[in-house]
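Narrative of accomplishments. A recurring question from our advisory board has been how the design workflow behaves on a single, concrete structure rather than in aggregate. To address it, we present the structure tokens for one chain from the evaluation set, followed by the sequence designed for it. No filtering or post-editing was applied between the two.
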């Protein structure tokens, strides 16, 4: 794995990482500290600070003299100016991710969009050189193309029928960020658009993508819908952000970061090969598209799979490779690392003798 060259960021410089208690931000903070940098982490409050510190301890890089915390909120202007004081680079990960469906789209869209604008405005006033913002493949590939090929040139139409609120929030937040930078040309923006993020957890709070693996290994998914997607390792997503933070050609660009194609059933097959003791708990078959479409009428959790209509997206990571020199891990390595961390954290139990 090629490491990002962050030597152009002096060790005395301060890098701000938002959304500090999140899966991705924990790995970003750990990597920056490991590489010798000073980091200020934004969190909503003391509980999230404790979660972030626990993640850093697990990563073996908690450095009281090089990490500090600022309490901020995406929905408020308060405290962002102080958070930016002395900062040279910003990695903006923070964005609402609803565990359950929101009552209204605005519960997700407004904090994502307005929060991104607050971060950019505060960074600009503070004289920050560059903001690297985390968007998502959700902002790229959920309006279907004729050939199902996707690159940085593609955008999801926020008015796509059935588009989930989270996906819409990523589109509108990224669009707003680019519009802001076009209006205020004295700050640089780079956007990273990851596909499904997997990899080792640092704390025992699996959610999102890694939560799918936990559900499979705990026997909660006897069948899976036909659903194809790309996987990327959280450590490689961090690497892309740090490369984008310093690479001169990254300013004003967006980068798709995808490690390789998979599906829920292919993921189950990887788990079966590498963790055979859990085989009896894993999904036994893949639902057909017709079954998914019918079940989605009464099961909200299947509506995204039904909307995708069995498509197999072809997602290009050529730009990240060629411009940033980025190289991802394999899907198989990423999935196995995810499981190993889940087992170490005790999030999934060892299979009982009766399971085998």
């Amino acid at each position: 794995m090629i490491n990002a060259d962050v030597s152009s960021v002096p060790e005395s410089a301060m890098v701000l990482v938002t959304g500090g208690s999140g899966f991705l931000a924990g790995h970003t903070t750990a990597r920056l500290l490991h590489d010798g940098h000073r980091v200020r982490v934004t969190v909503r409050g003391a509980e999230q600070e404790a979660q972030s510190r626990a993640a850093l301890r697990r990563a073996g890089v908690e450095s009281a003299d090089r990490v500090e915390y600022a309490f901020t909120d995406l929905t408020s202007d308060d405290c962002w100016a102080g958070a930016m004081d002395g900062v040279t680079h910003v990695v903006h990960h923070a964005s609402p991710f609803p565990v359950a469906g929101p009552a209204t789209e605005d519960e997700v869209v407004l904090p994502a969009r307005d929060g991104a604008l607050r971060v950019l405005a505060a960074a600009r006033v503070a004289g920050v050189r560059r903001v690297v913002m985390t968007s998502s493949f959700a902002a790229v590939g959920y309006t279907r193309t004729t050939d199902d090929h996707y690159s940085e040139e593609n955008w999801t139409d926020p008015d796509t029928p059935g588009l989930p609120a989270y996906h819409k929030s990523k589109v509108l937040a990224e669009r707003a960020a680019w519009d802001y930078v076009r209006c205020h040309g004295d700050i640089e923006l780079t956007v990273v658009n990851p596909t499904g993020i997997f990899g080792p957890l640092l704390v025992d709070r699996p959610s999102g993508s890694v939560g799918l693996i936990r559900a499979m290994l705990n026997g909660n998914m006897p069948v899976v819908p036909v659903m194809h997607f790309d996987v990327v390792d959280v450590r490689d997503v961090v690497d892309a952000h740090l490369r984008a933070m310093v690479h001169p050609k990254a300013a004003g660009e967006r980068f798709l970061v995808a490690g390789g194609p998979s599906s829920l059933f292919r993921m189950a097959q990887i788990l079966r090969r590498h963790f055979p003791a859990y085989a009896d708990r894993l999904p036994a078959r893949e639902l057909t598209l017709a079954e998914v479409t019918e079940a989605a009428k009464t099961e909200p959790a299947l509506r995204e799979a039904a909307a995708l209509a069995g498509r197999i997206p072809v997602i290009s990571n050529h730009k990240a490779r060629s411009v940033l020199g980025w190289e991802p891990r394999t899907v198989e390595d990423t999935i196995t690392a995810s499981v190993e961390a889940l087992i170490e954290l005790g999030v999934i139990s060892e299979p009982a003798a009766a399971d085998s």
